[in-house]
Amino acid sequence: MTASSTVLVTGASGFIAKHIVRELLESGYGVRAAVRSATRRAQVEALFPDAGIEFVSLDLTSDEGWDAALRGVDALMHTASPFPTAPPKDPQDLIRPAVDGTHRALRAAESAGVTRIVLTSTCGAIYKPADQQWERVKTRADWTDPEGPRTTPYEASKTLAEQAAWRFAADHPEIRLTTINPGMVFGPALDEHYGSSLDLVEQILAGRMPFYPNVQMPAVDVRDVARMHVRALADEGSVGQRFPANAGAMTIPEIADVLRRAFPDARIHGRVAPDWLVRALATVVPLLRTAATGLGHNADVVGTDAPRQFGFEYIPTSDAVLASAEFIRSRR
User: Fold this and answer.
1) Exposure of 251 by Cβ count < 10 A (0-12 exposed, 13-18 middle, 19+ buried)?
2) Mean pLDDT over all residues of the chain?
3) 158 a catalytic residue
4) Does the reported pTM lie above 0.85?
5) How confident is the model at residue 52 (pLDDT cuts 50, 70, 90)?
6) Which helix (H) or strand (E) holds 179?
7) Which residues pair with 57 in a beta bridge?
8) What is the distance between the alpha carbons of residues 161 and 164, in angstroms, rounded to a whole number?
9) CA 161 to chain centre
10) Could you tell me if 99 and 107 are in contact, meaning their C-beta atoms sit under 8 angstroms apart?
């Protein structure tokens, strides 16, 4: 894989994917961007108006367009996956498109002779293993149990999709697969369309969280996540490996403390909620159900494999959180 190669990026309008597109362009790669709608295409075009990006329309739930989209590219960067704003009533609403979409992407790649694939997974596919040893730090050898008592539908969808990708690669030895597994992704957005991690920062800054569930999460800056994806393309040593992207785990109260110290003018208030209260409220407040599954759980994942393999140092987690906050405040 050389810097003059062309890469298909699925889900190209996503928070992480936009940074990946920028990193690819700055590294000299050509980009074919897959989006679901004209609106999402316009978002990407507005960021990179003169970059010569080629656009295609793809849907995780439809076969239409996949074969043509993979034709003539040198690598596939599969970032697309459904992400809920609240837990779905039926977990299959997330699981089916995530798994089926991954199958579609890899089958089309194999059919087109595209053998280099980098897949965006998550630390959520790692940190809730079947042994239910909640207190230990997890490694990339661990797998979340999709049917585990604490596993959310999103974590199950990402776990099953990544496992499907590795099975496909095992059945097709010519496929050279690497997965990148980010934790909660902070850092600056490239536009006003960003993900749930920045929504969390925005809620804390605005004083809309009266209390903070004591939930821990691995965390990383989006710029490091993009760097890992792009460096993996040309790094044959990364083939067959999964790389947790985690600069250091933080709890929600710790994130609030970082923001409170940095922005004393912000209306940051609230106290740490006792676990029993979070569990009780989660029965009636859907947005707290995910938080409740993380109570008393060490979600830390060893993230040192990636810097060692790809030759970089993580942006500290607190700096990533502050970069999110600075972006949000600059848009007011």
Assistant:
1) middle
2) 93
3) yes
4) yes
5) very high
6) strand 176-182
7) 35
8) 5
9) 13
10) no
SS (H, E, C) 123-177: HHHCCCECCCCCCCCECCCCCECCCCCCCCHHHHHHHHHHHHHHHHHHHCCCCEE
Task: Write out the two tokens for 141.
Answer: 């050898």
User: What is the pLDDT averaged over residues 235-259?
Assistant: 97
Contact status, residue 127 vs residue 246, Cβ threshold 8 Å: no
- For tokens 């990193």, name the residue: 23
3 state DSSP class of 4? coil
Q: Where in the chain are the domains?
A: 6-330
| DSSP annotation string for 38-98 | HHHHHHHHHHSTTS--EEEE--TT--TTHHHHHTT-SEEEE------SS--SSTHHHHHHH
pLDDT range class, residue 68, cuts 50, 70, 90:
very high
- Asked if CATH classification 3.40.50.720 holds for the domain at 6-330, the reply, yes or no, is yes
Q: Which residue among 18, 128, 138, 158 is the active-site one? A: 158
State the residue for tokens 């393999």: 309
pLDDT at 3: 62
A 10 A CB-CB count for 92 gives 13
- For the stretch 163-191, pLDDT in tens is 999 999 999 999 999 999 999 999 999 99
DSSP letter at 231 equals: H
